[in-house]
Amino acid sequence: MVSGSASPFNPAEESGSSLWGRRQATPAFVLAGWGGYYLLALGCILLSRLPQEISTLWLPDALAVLWLLMLEPRQRRGPLLGLALMIPAANLSHGDPWRLALSFTLANLAQIALAVWLMERHVQPRRALTEPAHLLRAMALGGAVPAAFGGGVACLIVPTVAGTPLGPSLGHLWWSWVVSSFFGAVTLLPLGLWVLAHGWHLARLLRPRSLGALALVGLACWFLPQWLLTPFLFLMVLLGAVALNGGFLLGAVAALLASVMLNAQYALGWMALQHARSMDTVTAVTAMLVTVIPTVLIGAVRERLQQQLRRVQAGEALLRSMADATPVLLCRVDEQERIVQLNPAGARLLGAQAPDELLGQPLGERLPLHSARDGQGVLTALRTPDGALRQVMLYRAPVEAGRRGSAVYSLLDVTDQLEAQQLRAQTAQAEARSQAKSALLSHMSHELRTPLNAVLGFAQLLQTELGRAPLPRQHERLQLLLQSGWHLLGMIDELLDLSRIEAGQLALDCRTVALAPLLGEAVAMVQADAARRHIVIETPPALTGHHVHADPLRLRQVLINLLSNAVKYNREGGRVRIEVAAEAGHWTLSVADTGLGISLAQQPHVFEPFNRLDQARSSVPGTGIGLSITRRLVEAMGGRMGFLSDPGAGSTFWISLAAAEAPARPDTGLQRAEAPQVRPARVLCVEDDPVSALLVTQALGLDGHQVQVAGTAGEALRLAQADPPDLMLIDFRLPDFGGPELHRRLRADPRLAELPCIALTAQATDDDRRAAGPGWAAFLAKPVDLSVLRHAVAAALQPDRPRPVA
Question: N or C end: fewer C-beta atoms under 10 angstroms in the chain?
């Protein structure tokens, strides 16, 4: 609801321009206007003209004004000129001399044209029906002002053309013209404005009450002037009562009826006042004007009151409907806090079927009113009829401010909102914990990868240096060291993958991928472990034309995980069988083992993270999150994963991915290039960890490279600008600013824009790769396989290598 002063009309739809000029000047409408003017003019001449004077009631001009206002402005000229024939025709029909008939024409036309011009610009019909001041404006602009102007024109023309002023003097002619024309406008304009505003909806005049009122007015106007010397006061009271009770329309019709009958009485000489004393025409018409004008003004006041009453009733009905429709309890109480009004929702909340059941009962017996405060909401508990405990907000507002008495209470059930708010808070806390966990894992990953890089790196260096003639014991120890290090790195990667999957931050690059190369690489990765336990891996025949829609790196990870589990949980001398089958637009790859299988009790928990089932106390290493990550990766690529297990006989795990059309050039996403030729070069290593820097220096020294170390990004930038190297290895986390920023600054220097740069960092997530930007020769994650590092350096130093993309 919007409070404020309301205008009694709507300017957009009730302005004069919305009602004037709506009719087309059709021949029938124009002829009807001309005919109506002629007949009404002739009637007024016959009814009210005295010898050698103008008519006492002149209605035709008011009719012509209303008729012309109904036409479009551009169509009024022809009908207006046609009135120039109707005006003298009426006078000639009465037997007036032709000079007298012609003398009235110009004055009447000027009066009509001025009235149309003023009414169209300054009068709004609907306002005139409900605002007495605007109705008086309409009477003045449509009657008094044009009548005064027309009387002036008549005083100039009539004596000259007709040879007589039609009275004792020109002043008498002017005043007679003004009074009679104004009387006609006052009599006919109100009814015409009603028709313009509401159309010809006059059915209310046919009601018995309205017909009786008009009959009473007619009888009074017929007999009272003949019996009483002062009938006008009684008639004014009667007409005012009719307008007050019947409204504007009935008042306008009653005023028209009274005007016509009083003028007829005066013209016939039947008024008792005419016999008792001498009374000129102007005085008589003025008395009639004073009698009639209050009638329509009272009707306008009554219409205004009716309009306001309808608005109040509509507002009350709207408020009642809103109160009935709202789910909030709304209740008004008296001074004793007894229920006076109650909406249906409130009745149901208080345990009743309808509001009437609770009227007159103390509201305090059902609600804790003692806690309510004026203008303030109070949170309290309410026991509903069904026994449920609801949290509600109780409000109180006094009906009359500053007095202790009746008041309005509202009760809003906020149980659902509070529960939703609590759920949102819990969700936000869970998200915050998840983000904190992800941040912690990412930080721990970096902190673990850095020392692990040294462990694995130097172990690989030892293996390389002792590779020519190692002692059996040294070789065994190095193998155990490397296996443990790579196993620890795998656990770190799995924890990070699980964290990213749970946080919804896993980035995939799905495209058409051939199954055969990825499956071959996965088998090669687990072949050594399988041979050590005498496990045979049975692969399917050549997989030509088998392509799926997947991320090649993640699919490789899935296949390695499935095969690794099949080998790890198999029996000595067992078998692992790989099969690929087509199924409804998908390729289904299954990995079956001959291990112990999974018990029926444990099968529902297979994909739970950190749940190793029956293997928790076994000697088989693992974290219990591999299968959970595998299934989530498959589902993220749009596939499905499941398993079948026969306890004591083995298990079969399968994945199903959408089949894809073979590309023109098969792409596994993991194609390896031929080993490039090594060319010794000058390498600038940007690394703040001395151990990692030493590892890189010694590893690249095997290929004859000269390595210079910079501990900060700023130092590296100065060294590169002073003496550009052949290649740069850049860590991401540096003391002053990060590796990606250093890379961008190098690209901005024209001398260093084509300098090959390799990222070598423990920040190896997908987000880190995207944040690093384009233009890197390679992106290597710590701990790094030294053979991969040496291969990447050699490839970046090739003369025909691709240029960096800015």
Answer: N
